[in-house]
Input
Amino acid sequence: MPKPVVAVVLALLCAPLAVLAQSDEENWRRCASRDATDTVIAACSAVIQQGGSNKDRLVDAHYNRAHAYAAMDNHARVIADLDAALRLKPGNPLSLTWRGDAYAAIGRVERAIEDYSTAIAIDANASPAWYGRCNARTRLGQLDLAMVDCNEMIARSPHIAFGFDSRGRVHLLAGRLDAAIADFDTALKIHARIASALYARGIAKQRKGDAMGAAVDDVAARLIKADIAEEMTAYGIR
Output
């Protein structure tokens, strides 16, 4: 076979491989992008289906797809992707904490606590896991245990407002109104637009007889998040 013909045949054989490689890279680019949710899900699904030996890329594809599903409040899909990520990379505290959050979102609070506890056992400095377990235990009425978790979270991340917000809820449910208001004040100094802190502070003020202050906080909370009252009922705050 003359050399020019060999070159043509080789070029034809290699062309599909080049196109496939280009397609794989494009799928990965879109999977890792901030494109529309459906685009990210489709691209990440293609990366996952393709498989390959790059375990880190597969884990990231599951993470990215989980983020997209979380934006759709599709918590069952989030859990499925994090299950897959944990099979590829077992014992990752971030994955465990995130899966705990997804379980908590669908009301499986005890199961969420299992994931948070495992994450903490692996990395005692995993602040999000302490935070998640604090909130989960608060929902179950385990206030003493929740307080321990909130304190651990705040000790590790005192600059994060949500730790004080969560501890304030524990104080509120335990009837420690002044301590609750102090924590909500601290949370709102760090981050002024936390609807849960405003709403719960309003409840605390109302119980202390400050009707005007309670009304101001209630209105401010609902302007930020219209359904905040419904959200707080999960913690027994109403």
